[in-house]
Amino acid sequence: MKPSRDFWITWGITVTLALVGVILLFTKLAAYGIVIFCILPTVIGFTTGIYSRKFLSYLGIITGLLCIFLLLIGAGEGIFCILMALPVVFAFVALGYLLGFWVKKNRDSSKDSPKVIVLPILLIILSTIGEKFFAGSEIKNSVSTSLTLPYPKEIIYKKIIAVDTVDIEKNIFQKMGLPTPRKCILTEEKIGGLRICEFEEGKIIETIKELKSGELLRMQITSSDITMSWLRFDEDIYTIKANADNTSTITRTTTFLSELKPRFYWNYIEGITIKAEQEFVFRNLEKDLSKK
To answer: Superkingdom of this entry's organism (predicted)?
Structure first.
């Protein structure tokens, strides 16, 4: 079946809007926030619903998703970030499509007013300005994971402060592209000492801010070459407590700053992925301790 005029209109508008998103990100006029993840996909879905006919509407939605996919790649983010973004992008494309379809059904199709397209584009421009000046910047958050082990706290502390090799199986998020740690080298066990953590994707350097042998290790993340423009790690904190049953409980708390919005979605994603990273390190710790 030969594509109709409506299909080409839908395809052209979708690509144009995706390119607008690329420009907004590269020029830093927009962050990874409401405009990129909510408003832009909604507008793409809306124009698809307005102009597409029958099965071509589904093709229009797929086109919109692929353009957002390329948009994120073009902005320099990894495959993991893209995969995590697709559910929220898809939801707003679908919402926009339903709105567009409703408008199409309830307007006079013989009056193809340019406002149908001009108004959504104007919405992108105004919302970008609003988000830039009124939405705030990074939001601080933290994630904690605890593990109880049948070992004295001093032994656990020595095993976690420096890690020779991390060689356990990757979790599902790491297989999708989440950074995978491989070892941590300690320069000096004192305040101001460095803990250099090497990942498959790069390196993170932590500076010790506070420590108490066998109980506490608090570090500031001072350098990272792992590319995540939307998230910045702040602190890495390990606390170890002895229990009455001759076991010890180690807790790792990671604090970070994120610019991702909408927060109702990204709070959940950041929580499960950072916790998966923490649990990965703890699984390796269990393995190392079991060799003693």
So the answer is: Bacteria
| End position of a domain, from candidates 115, 134, 153 | 134
- Average the pLDDT over 257-278 and give the result: 90
* Same domain for 199 and 103: no
Cα atoms in the 13 Å half-sphere on the side-chain side of 36? 27
What tokens appear for 23 in the block? Answer: 């420009």
CB 191 within 8 A of CB 95: no
Q: Which residue's entry shows tokens 């939001």?
A: 139
Domain shared by 145 and 80, yes or no: no
Please state, in angstroms and rounded to a whole number, the distance separating the CA atoms of residues 44 and 50.
10
Condensed to tens digits (0 to 9), the pLDDT of residues 81-94 reads 777 887 888 888 88
**pLDDT bucket at 116, cuts 50 / 70 / 90:** low
Give yes or no: residues 58 and 146 share one domain: no
Residues 6+ apart with CB under 8 A from 12: none
Cis bond leading into 262, ω under 30°? Answer: yes
- 98 in Cβ contact with 251 (< 8 Å): no
Burial of 245 (0-12, 13-18, 19+ CB in 10 A): exposed
150 shares a domain with 67? no
Q: Among 103, 134, 165, which residue terminates a domain?
A: 134
Residue 21 shares a structural domain with residue 86: yes
The Cα 131–Cα 76 span in angstroms is 21
Q: How far is CA 288 from CA 164, 182, 203, 276, in A?
A: 10, 13, 22, 19
Is there a single domain that holds both residue 144 and residue 118? Answer: no
Residue pair 13/47 in contact by the 8 Å Cβ criterion: yes
What's the N-to-C CA distance of the chain in angstroms?
69
Side chain identity at residue 152, one-letter code: P
Enter the pTM of the model: 0.80
Tokens of 36: 């990129």
Residues 274 and 155 in one domain: yes
